[in-house]
Q: What sequence folds into this?
């Protein structure tokens, strides 16, 4: 399947910090989706992007669909403790199946 | 508005056995996709059902099969279970329109093969 490279693999946040993560691919996608997964649960959709160059916000979250259609980033502003979890990017194409990155694990810095 | 539901929550089987997992899509959705998520990895696409037919398939052997019912609910069947089939199995539903496919996930079924 298509390979998505998600970085960083993990990050530590301090409350109030802005954090950023991104996803790149060698393939073009028509849709970029960002999900958050808590332990033992299914992924929850955070933001969906449908057009190259699109910038979309959902509360403190902002994501962009790269102009080349091969990348996307997710920013979290003013992080809070409940932002911890695993964030996944997913790319969708005309074949209706999603390809996922390996995830970015966000942990609170002690 | 009910979201995607899956049953059972957890399942323990032994090698060689067969298992059936169930999924009910979100209200208004007509397409169901199944994913396997191994520990520490992202979900891997197994297959997708639309109009009661398998429309797309990922890189999984024929031991993995499925079904979609007229009410859009779906089953995933795995035969001749292997230890490596232990994973979280996720169902995702969507409304097929155009080429975009925004999928919503259920809570998953944790399968352990001993």
A:
């Amino acid at each position: 399947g298509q390979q998505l490279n998600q970085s960083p693999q993990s990050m530590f946040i301090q409350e109030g910090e802005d954090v950023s993560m991104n996803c790149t691919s060698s393939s073009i996608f028509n849709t970029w989706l960002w999900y958050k997964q808590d332990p033992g649960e299914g992924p929850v959709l955070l933001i969906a992007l449908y057009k190259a160059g699109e910038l979309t916000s959902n509360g403190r979250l902002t994501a962009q669909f790269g102009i080349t259609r091969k990348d996307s980033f997710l920013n979290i502003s003013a992080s809070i403790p409940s932002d911890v979890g695993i964030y996944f990017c997913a790319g969708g194409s005309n074949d209706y199946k999603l390809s996922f990155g390996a995830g970015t694990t966000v942990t609170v810095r002690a | 508005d009910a979201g995607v539901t899956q049953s059972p929550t957890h399942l323990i089987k032994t090698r060689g056995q067969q298992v059936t997992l169930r999924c009910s899509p979100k209200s208004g959705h007509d397409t169901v996709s199944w994913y396997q998520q191994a520990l520490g990895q992202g979900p891997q696409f197994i297959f997708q059902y639309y109009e009661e037919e398998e429309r797309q398939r990922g890189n999984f052997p024929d031991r993995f099969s499925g079904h979609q019912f007229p009410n859009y609910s779906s089953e995933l069947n795995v035969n001749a279970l292997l230890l490596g089939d232990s994973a979280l199995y996720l169902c995702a539903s969507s409304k097929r329109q155009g080429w975009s496919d925004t999928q919503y996930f259920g809570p998953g079924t944790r399968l352990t093969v001993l």
Notes: The longest strand of chain A covers residues 85-92. Chain A has a mean pLDDT of 93. The radius of gyration of chain A is 13 Å.
